[in-house]
Amino acid sequence: MMDSEEIVAKLNWFYSLELNQVNLYMAQSKQVEDLYISKVLERASYIEQQHVDNIAAQIKKMGSTPTHLGDIISPILGKTGGNIASLFGVVPLLKVDILLEQKAMSDYKDFISQVEQDSELWSLLWSNLIDEDLHTSWFSSKVQELECRMQKEKER
């Protein structure tokens, strides 16, 4: 069982991770030429911002404040990562996003198993986990579609 300080520390980890994803997806959305993919990344950024806001509220409810280091570093890393990933094309970009989402899902599952006694926090974490899973599924499906299309073009 985690104590209050450990929970806040873990929430700050997720706060920073989600802030990174907000800026990553927004930067990517501005770099991708395909309008539909751009809009999906923009929407993913919006959903990640909801996660940031909900986690910040939970941290404040526990009598603490969200990490200031995360407020500074995560947006820079996210934007930079988004711009760099965009240079390699859409498929590699989405594969990077899948890896990040899988890491987030793994961390959420681990945290969920440690906070079952707090039903409000438990529900928040489950909600975020499901969103991350939906992002991963969409990104994976789009990668498969694009790779199939590229393979067909090569065969012509």
CATH class: Mainly Alpha
Largest sheet: none
Give the overall average pLDDT.
89
Sheet-strand content, in percent, reads under 5%
Helical run tally: 5
What gyration radius follows from the Cα positions, in whole Å?
Answer: 17 Å
Number of strands: 0
CATH level-4 homologous superfamily: Ferritin, core subunit, four-helix bundle
Structural category is mainly alpha
Describe the structure.
It is a single chain. By secondary structure, this protein is mainly alpha-helical. The chain has one domain (4-155): Ferritin, CATH 1.20.1260. 87% of the residues lie in helices and 0% in strands. The protein contains 5 helices and no strands. The protein has helices at residues 4-31, 35-61, 68-86, 90-114, 119-155. α1 (4-31) packs antiparallel against α2 (35-61), α1 runs antiparallel to α4 and α2 runs antiparallel to α5. It is elongated, with a radius of gyration of 17 Å. The mean pLDDT is 89.
Keywords:
156 residues; mainly alpha; Ferritin; 5 helices
Quick recap of the structure?
The chain is mainly alpha-helical and 156 residues long.
Write the layout of secondary structure elements.
Layout: H1 4-31, H2 35-61, H3 68-86, H4 90-114, H5 119-155
Helix pairs in contact: 1-2, 1-3, 1-4, 2-5, 4-5
